Automatic annotation (TrEMBL), chain A:
SUPFAM superfamilies the UniProt entry points to: P-loop containing nucleoside triphosphate hydrolases
Matches recorded under Pfam families: ABC_tran
Domain ABC transporter: residue ranges: 8-214
Keywords recorded for this protein, A-Z: ATP-binding, Cell membrane, Membrane, Nucleotide-binding, Transport
Tagged with keyword ATP-binding: yes
Molecular function GO terms recorded: ATP binding; ATP hydrolysis activity; ATPase-coupled transmembrane transporter activity
Name of the protein described by the UniProt record: Cobalt/nickel transport system ATP-binding protein
UniProtKB/TrEMBL annotation, chain B:
InterPro entries: CbiM/NikMN
Source organism of this protein record: Azoarcus indigens
GO biological processes: transition metal ion transport
Keywords recorded for this protein, A-Z: Cell membrane, Membrane, Transmembrane, Transmembrane helix, Transport
Pfam family for this entry, one: CbiM
Transmembrane helix as UniProt keyword: yes
One term under GO cellular component: plasma membrane
Localization of this protein: Cell membrane
Spans through the membrane: 6-26, 38-58, 64-87, 94-118, 138-161, 173-197
NCBIfam families registered for this protein in UniProt: PRK06265.1-4, PRK06265.1-5
Membrane-protein topology: Multi-pass membrane protein
Metal-binding among keywords: no
Protein's name according to its UniProt entry: Cobalt/nickel transport system permease protein
TrEMBL record, chain C:
Keyword Cell membrane set for record: yes
Residues passing through the membrane, by range: 38-59, 71-90, 110-132
Cellular localization per UniProt: Membrane
Protein name: Cobalt/nickel transport system permease protein
Pfam family membership, one: CbiQ
UniProt keyword list: Cell membrane, Membrane, Transmembrane, Transmembrane helix
Ubl conjugation found in the keyword field: no
Length: 216, 209, 243
């Protein structure tokens, strides 16, 4: 992998949802150590953009390079799900349970870790972001903020190189939000963050871009 | 496991339709007005789950899960499966309207059997502790075995009653073709019952007495 | 240029009822016919009508072809077994068996094609309305409508779970891990359904459910339904005896 090149490089990206173009002629670049914020009103395609980086929304045009590799088909994207860790806008979608620790072990198990190794990784990750006490809680019995942190643990347990965060602080109170921002800043990871939250932008952003409303 | 239109003889179709109608009527009677949303949601959930592809060898199979549905729903599987089979016949040409009664019996009778045979195994204790994991796995696997095995037996019976020895080889081939589903359904039902007991013990407590 | 039409505006209720009723009627009729000539004609008519529906954009061609293929999977099994009699050592061609296989194949295809043509473009909501109009017992009709409504919700849930699992590196294959993960998907869908049922229950009670008005359908009694089935059975038995 070319260490000097950008981690993510998109040129002239065009993304469509249900046949309607949402993002047009969009250029995107993320370098190591950057925390890039994608701003834009509701419905401008922030979620669509993040999902396209994992291959969940197919490119309707343009070219995309992830970690130095050109990605077009499902086979190109599949091995990058892990190195690129996505935190979904709705954390509830992302928790598979039954318990928080088992949920965090989901990713490592997919990458071939043994049950014991996966559990070890999961518990370490939970401890790192300060929610070790939630390890044995059922995921459906968590508050909104706890859910977000548990979902983040699931992403971090895969030791990603890049984080893709979809509105990580929306709906959290100040304390929970600060805790999450602290964890993210400490992680030292490069990230692309979609957010409306000024506190989040102020605390983390090294660079910002704004998505224009969809062309009519 | 759907039999197609045009295979079964009229007396078999008529008898099955009458029995199935009785089953639906009984199931509806047991299903209180307030439980309609729950039954509809579980029915929809099983309908959606039956679209999950499980890779097997070079191909893949669809789950059937009638045993597990029976375990959770009891007699209510009759109306719930009636709805599912009606939609499948109308929207996807799986099965058909004339064989709906026969297909309903084939799917729902083993499901009801699974309910009465297995519900004691999965019910939580008085104080709410779930049964041991081993027992849950056995109950789940048995759902698959009773559900699919019973369905295969009933489908074979319907064919024998309709065409006698003419269908012997067809029955053999049908049973063979369903072996992968049989195994996969049992495995997945076992794991699912064990998971449900941990994620939402109320789901198994909903298995009514 | 023809664009993929989204579900066309739902036709009015009486038309819907007529279409579903006719589909059920021809299913009963065709599945009892024993004349290859008539059945072949029915197949041809059904195919023409289905193709016409497809040309009008109500029934996408690929979905028509997929459905024909899935129906004929069973027909293929029929031809693999029925025309062969296992006698002394090897399989022997049996004329009677072949004739039976032919009849069944024609019936299966005639019914499937006819129903596809009649029901082309109807979605689950339309089917539910039509069936309710055909005199299902009211509780069964409500179960049908509720199920259809929740199908969309839970299918969406399944899709989101699937996406989130793939985002964390899950790739299905024929292995133990896949069985465990698919069971987890199934359990999650069921848990979502149960939790939603709890919320629906609260909402119903919050709105004083006991006094909630029942939808005003013609209220067919269970005996009506039973009588209808009995008539259908009797009719088809007669057809069978008279053939
Ligand atoms: N699954 C979908 N099917 C069809 N259209 C969709 C789908 N998801 C999103 N869209 C549409 O695509 C556009 C972009 O949606 P997207 O979710 O990317 O916006 P967003 O910027 O993330 O908004 P928000 O800030 O509200 O999360 C919207 O107009 C939306 O209606
Ligand atoms: Mg969004």
């Amino acid at each position: 992998m070319n260490a000097a090149g950008p981690l993510i490089l998109g040129r002239g990206l065009r993304l469509a949802r249900a046949g309607k173009v949402v993002v047009e002629a969009f250029d995107l670049e993320l370098h190591a150590g950057e925390r890039l914020f994608v701003l834009g009103a509701s419905g401008t395609g922030k979620t669509t953009l993040l999902h396209s980086l994992l291959g969940f929304v197919p490119l309707a045009g343009g070219e995309l390079q992830l970690l130095g590799r050109t990605c077009r088909s499902e086979q190109d994207f599949a091995p990058l799900r892990g190195p690129l860790g996505l935190l979904f806008q709705d954390a509830g979608d992302q928790l598979f349970g039954p318990t928080v620790a088992e949920d965090a072990a989901f990713g490592p198990l997919n990458r071939g870790a043994s049950a014991a190794e996966a559990r070890e990784i999961a518990l370490q990750t939970l401890a790192r972001i300060g929610i070790a006490h939630l390890a044995e809680r059922p995921v459906h019995a968590l508050s909104g903020g706890e859910q977000r942190l548990a979902a983040l643990a699931g992403v971090l347990a895969m030791s990603p190189q890049v984080l893709l965060l979809d509105e990580p602080t929306t709906g959290l109170d100040e304390a929970a939000s600060e805790r999450l921002l602290g964890v993210l800043a400490d992680s030292g990871l490069s990230m692309i963050v979609a957010s409306h939250d000024p506190a989040c932008v102020g605390a983390l952003a090294t660079r910002r871009i704004t998505l224009a409303p969809a062309p009519r | 496991m759907h039999l197609a239109e045009g295979v079964l003889s009229a007396p078999v179709l008529a008898g099955a339709a009458a029995l199935a109608a009785a089953g639906v009527a009984f199931g509806l009677r047991r299903l209180g007005e307030a439980q309609l949303p729950l039954a509809a949601l579980l029915g929809a959930a099983f309908f959606v789950a039956s679209t999950i592809h499980v890779p097997v060898g070079v191909g893949s199979v669809h789950l059937i899960l009638n045993g597990l549905a029976g375990l959770m729903l009891g007699w209510a599987v009759f109306p719930v499966f009636f709805v599912a089979l009606l939609l499948q016949a109308a929207l996807f040409s799986f099965g058909g309207f004339t064989v709906l009664g026969a297909n309903l019996l084939i799917m729902a009778l083993p499901a009801v059997a699974a309910h009465y045979l297995l519900r004691r195994l999965v019910r939580p204790a008085e104080d709410g502790t779930p049964p041991p994991r081993r027992r849950l796995l056995v109950a789940g696997a048995a759902c698959g075995i009773v559900g699919i095995g019973g369905a295969a037996a009933l489908a074979s019976l319907a064919l024998v009653l309709s065409g006698g020895h003419l269908f012997t080889e067809l029955i053999g081939l049908l049973v063979l073709a369903h072996l992968p589903v049989f195994v996969v359904d049992a495995l997945i039902s076992a794991a699912t019952v064990a998971l449900l007991a941990r994620m939402l013990p109320a789901a198994l407590a909903a298995v009514r007495a | 240029m023809r664009t993929a039409l989204p579900a066309t505006a739902t036709p009015p209720a009486p038309r819907l009822r007529l279409r579903l009723g006719t589909a059920v009627g021809i299913s009963v009729l065709l599945s009892q016919l024993t004349s290859p000539g008539l059945l072949l004609a029915a197949c041809a008519a059904g195919l023409l009508l289905a193709l016409a529906a497809s040309a009008n954009g109500v029934l996408p061609l690929h979905s028509l072809l997929r459905r024909i293929a899935s129906v004929n999977l069973f027909v293929a099994m029929l031809w693999l077994t029925l025309p062969w009699a296992l006698q002394g050592g090897g399989p022997q061609w049996s004329e009677a068996g072949a004739h039976h296989a032919l009849l069944i194949s024609l019936r299966t295809n005639a019914v499937a094609l006819g129903c596809m043509a009649l029901l082309a473009g109807l979605d689950a909501f339309a089917i539910a309305r039509a069936a309710a109009g055909l005199g299902l017992p009211s509780r069964l009709a409500r179960l049908l409508v509720l199920t259809v409504r929740y199908l969309g919700v839970l299918d969406d849930t399944r899709r989101r779970i699937d996406l989130a699992m793939r985002a964390r590196g899950f790739r299905p294959g024929a292995n133990r891990r896949t069985v465990a993960v698919l069971a987890q998907q199934l359990a999650l869908i069921l848990v979502h359904a149960m939790l939603r049922a709890e919320r629906v229950d609260l909402a119903l009670r919050a709105r004083a459910f006991a006094t909630a008005p029942q939808p005003a359908t013609r209220a067919p009694r269970p005996w009506r339904w039973a009588a209808g089935t009995a008539a259908l059975c009797l009719g088809s038995s007669l057809l069978w005896l008279l053939r």
